[in-house]
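Quick note —
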Amino acid sequence: MKLSFSLSLIGLLMIAANANASNQLLCDAKIRDLPKHLIVGHGINEDRQQAKQNALQSILEQYQVNIQTETEVSGKQANGTSEESFRLNVKSQTKGKLSDAIDVCSYTDEQGLHNLFVSWDSRPPINQLASKLIEHWGGKASAITFSGSKNIVASAPLVKLENLLVARGSVRPEKTVGVSLEYFNNQWLLSADGVSQALPESDLLSYVNLNEGDVEFTLLKWNDGQLNPASSLRQGSFFKFSAQLSGARYYQLFNLYADGRVSAVEGLTPNSNDKAVFPVSGFMKAELLEEGKADSDIYVLVYSDKKFRVSGISALERGKGLITKQGNYSLDSFLAWLDNNSSVVKTAMFNVKTEPETSGTTY
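Predicted structure written out below.
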């Protein structure tokens, strides 16, 4: 009886070992066949969930190496930024993107450890969306016309999307593709023809083009008791803007945060001088969305010959550097208001970079 039980146990162990070896071979084959734009992470641990975390960390480390290599080749690494701080920036930007990583395969090795393989698409979001649409349509179109907010349609990524979706000489008919931005499940999505693609916060504002007016902005930084022109800001800096607004009787300034929040810096202001300075009273204070990480904010000036009222946008409280997150992810409604009032108002935008207090960059 004992002998029979022992032989049965040995048999089961041999079957399990063969199954694990077979799964390992299947994993190897799957990984070999994956497209080159997918980064594959391999995680090992006795706990399956920890093995997945290790696999995601492996992807993160590979992505940092890829970014650094590309940057060294192109020569675009920021002057004055240490190698260590550059890595930290890449890690911070990548963390929010790994939520869409996909489990590829897994097996248990001879030591009983879970081996988990996870893949992540390293292509820009607009390339990923193009691939989804081409698969959805069964091929590229002969021509594309986008419909939706003109401020999204006019953005550089949408121009690139059109080029990716069109094949000159294609037998498929011209397509009209509706596009929109929406905030859903704590993330921003770009939707086109019913197909959605998640956008990382670091890319969101590149999908918006609000620079339709001929307005010259000047950033004015408060320093040594006076306002001086500046090209960028340091965390905690006090600042204003000036702009030439000939002919506009009313204007209002808005701040678009990198994460899609929108705040009204001031209420509607009459323009009594061609050169307007805003805010009219007090200063704005440069703040960061994430401590230690440089930010790039967009300020949008809405102006008109007539009075206007932008609804649904929270006002920045005096003395506060940022509006709260709750209920203020309103970029989509702000764009919708601008579209609905395009015959009355014009917009101009100005990009302001804010560095952390500890940054090695000097101004």
